[in-house]
Design goal:
This protein has 680 residues and is α+β, with helices and mostly antiparallel strands. Helix content is 45%, strand content 16%. Belongs to the FHY3/FAR1 family.
Length: 680
């Protein structure tokens, strides 16, 4: 505390100067006019004193508030009194320390959730009392009681500014914040921009992030009801135009929108093939309305993010998350994903255990790593980067026993026995460490590259947050089926000139079946397989790098059944065969990869065929147009090599013979004639 503040605290230590230490004492310790000095709003007096005069009670409050701020506390209006009872006008007012009084005991209500907030009140007796008087027909307010003894610690100047009484957002700042909210930037980014605009040090604005969120929340309370009505109306309009559009919502006891979730027909189609592994990202909010936002995303066969569904929640609790998961399963015809990746949220973790009991739940490693600087930088100092490298080494291990041993050694080496973040990470290790996850399929979504791709995809529709309906429109644009198909074709064209690196028949076979993205992953393993040696052992094969004399991976192969597995579990984890299994296949004179190890989700399939199968039988013309598109794609793909062209010619000849055996309807002939006329 500064010397000036300390002096202020000692001014009335003399008992003779203490007029009224009890807030319950309503007596007026007024001095005679001869013993008082006039103190108007422009006074330079820094300390309240008995007899000090103010033109208004607001001027007295502002003066005492400034005094309190210099001392390290804040004040609030406590009690007002009228002369000779009610109706005679305000004649006396008390201003007290913000920690005066005691918190009243609230009666519990089982139907109403209780906030477990600790009160700051501790019965402090510091106060200033002012009394109204009239002299020569001019009313004024005079200090008639003052005590500056506190029963609690006072705050330093760099701390007192965080008290609610001194945190204010000016009208101009409010307008800037609302403008920022319309652009969709985060509250943290808003604070940084305002700091730069005002040329203040980080953290020295007269308000906090919480104040900004409360401001946005206040606007949400005003506008959200109308916004919700518009959003529901828009969803119903979309449903009328597209019966395959799906949405669910809940209303609270006052018939106001509580939660809403939606998905598109193309998203449901994508989920049928690519819904084996899902990211449920709940780390974003609609800034303008401070609403938690959940987004279901997956990875398609081209290694690109695909949207599955979206949910807006009023609260982040077990009930809301359980409802969101049920709604999502309903959209996807009850089909649960094999694995789901989320942020570290205990309510969400519990909800997944209840609603998705057969789904393997894991935590997004990139969200965990993002917290490392704030968790460990100050603790580890110069050794932070060394520790981080060791963490990644442990994270990427294959064997659980190796991880457990390495973790203990890491904790000992860096002296982290009592670190709560290390303890929390270890307690949840089965949810993020790869040794515990490798036997489950995650489609490569645990890698940093795909995590950045997913985040960039989500940001595409977080830029429009002015209104809820605008957000819905933005999501629709981002996930539009035609846009997704166009992006896939562009990527395929960029990678169509695939160069074979090994000359192995397995490589050319895989190139013809897998998408360029998936083939590039398999090709990496094929190239590395040439550097490994395989040794037949009693129950399979031992495969290790040719420079190693010990260790290796165990591979089990049953040629007659086309089954192969490796102890590294790469195929189970990513859907791509590992170098160890490929080495054994090559050694065993296998020239094609078994069909079961070329998963449908990584093949060159077109969503057009999926759409064709799901169309109504009476959409004959549109089905023909989609089929023409598929034939065009077949010609393009077949022309890339002699082998492809030979295969296509043979298969199409067989298919054509089978088709000619089927009966022809008069409806089909009319549709074909009409289509030909339109084309010509």
């Amino acid at each position: 505390m500064s010397e000036e503040a300390a002096h202020m605290m000692l001014v009335y230590d003399d008992p003779s100067d203490q007029r009224s230490l009890s807030l319950d004492d309503t007596s007026s310790a007024e001095e005679s006019p001869d013993e008082t000095r006039l103190s108007l709003e422009t006074t330079n007096d820094a300390i309240p004193y008995i007899g000090q005069r103010f033109a208004t009670h607001d001027a007295a409050y502002e003066f005492y508030s400034e005094f309190a701020k210099r001392c390290g506390f804040s004040i609030r209006r406590h009690r007002t009194e009228g002369k000779d009872g009610i109706g005679k006008g305000l004649t006396r007012r008390y201003f007290v320390c913000h920690r005066a009084g005691n918190t009243p005991v609230k009666t519990s209500n089982e139907n109403k959730p209780q906030r477990n907030r600790k009160s700051s009140r501790c019965g402090c007796q510091a106060y200033m009392r002012i009394t109204k008087s009239t002299e020569l027909g001019v009313p004024e307010w005079r200090v008639t009681g003052f005590a500056n003894h506190h029963n609690h610690e006072l705050l330093e100047p760099n701390q007192v500014r965080f008290l609610p009484a001194y945190r204010t957002i000016s009208e101009s700042d409010k307008n800037r914040i609302l403008l920022f909210a319309k652009t969709g930037i985060s509250v943290q980014q808003m604070m940084r921009l305002l700091e730069l605009e005002k040329c203040v040090e980080p953290g020295y604005l007269p308000f906090t992030e919480k104040d900004v969120r409360n401001l946005l929340q206040s606007f949400r309370k005003v506008d959200l009801e109308d916004e919700s009505i518009d959003l529901l109306r828009m969803c119903r309009n979309i449903k009328d135009k597209d019966p395959n559009f799906k949405f669910e919502f809940t209303l609270d006891s006052n018939s106001r929108l509580e939660n809403i979730s939606w998905s598109y027909a193309s998203s449901v189609q994508s989920y049928e093939i690519f819904g084996d592994s899902v990211v449920f990202d709940t780390t974003h909010r609609l800034t303008a309305f401070d609403m938690p936002l959940g987004i279901w995303v997956g990875i398609n066969n081209y290694g690109m993010p695909c949207f599955f569904g979206c949910v807006l929640l009023r609260e982040e609790n077990l009930r809301s998350f359980s409802w969101a998961l049920k709604a999502f399963l309903g959209f996807m015809n009850g089909k649960a994903p094999q694995t789901i990746l989320t942020d570290q949220n205990m309510c969400l973790k519990e909800a997944i255990g209840m609603e998705l009991p057969t789904t393997r739940h894991a935590l997004c490693i990139w969200l965990i790593v993002a917290k490392f600087p704030s968790w460990f930088n100050a603790v580890l100092g110069e050794r932070y980067n060394e520790w981080k490298a060791e963490f990644y080494r442990l994270y990427n291990l294959e064997a659980i026993d190796d991880f457990e041993l390495g973790w203990r050694e890491m904790v000992n080496s860096f002296g982290l026995h009592s670190n709560r973040h290390i303890a929390s990470l270890y307690a949840l290790r089965s949810f993020w460490a790869l040794p515990y996850l490798r036997s489950h399929f995650f489609a490569g979504m645990t890698t940093p590259g795909l995590s950045k791709s997913i985040n960039a995809f989500i940001q595409r529709f977080l830029s429009s947050q002015t209104r809820l309906t605008h957000f819905l429109e933005q999501v629709a644009v981002a996930v539009d089926f035609k846009d997704q198909a166009g992006e896939q074709q562009t990527m395929q064209q960029n990678l169509q000139n695939i160069s074979l690196k090994t000359g192995a028949p397995m490589e050319s076979h895989a190139a013809a079946v897998l998408t360029p993205y998936a083939f590039s992953k398999l090709q990496e393993q094929l190239v590395m397989a040439a550097h490994y040696a395989s040794f037949q052992i009693e129950d399979g094969f031992l495969v290790r790098h040719h420079t190693k004399l010990e260790g290796g991976r165990k591979v089990y192969w049953v040629p007659r059944e086309g089954i192969i597995s490796c102890s590294c579990h790469q195929f189970e984890f990513s859907g791509i065969l590992c170098r160890h299994a490929l080495r054994v296949l090559s050694t065993g004179n296998c020239f094609q990869i078994p069909e079961r190890y070329l998963p449908l989700r990584w093949r060159r399939i077109s969503m057009l065929s999926t759409k064709l199968n799901q169309m109504a039988p009476n959409d004959h013309t549109e089905r023909i147009q989609l089929f023409q598109s598929m034939v065009s794609t077949l010609v393009t793909e077949s022309a890339k090599s002699k082998e492809r062209l030979d295969m296509a010619t043979e298969q199409v000849s067989i298919l054509l013979s089978q088709i000619r055996e089927q009966p022809v309807s008069s409806l089909g002939l009319r549709e074909i004639s009409s289509l030909h006329r339109n084309l010509t």
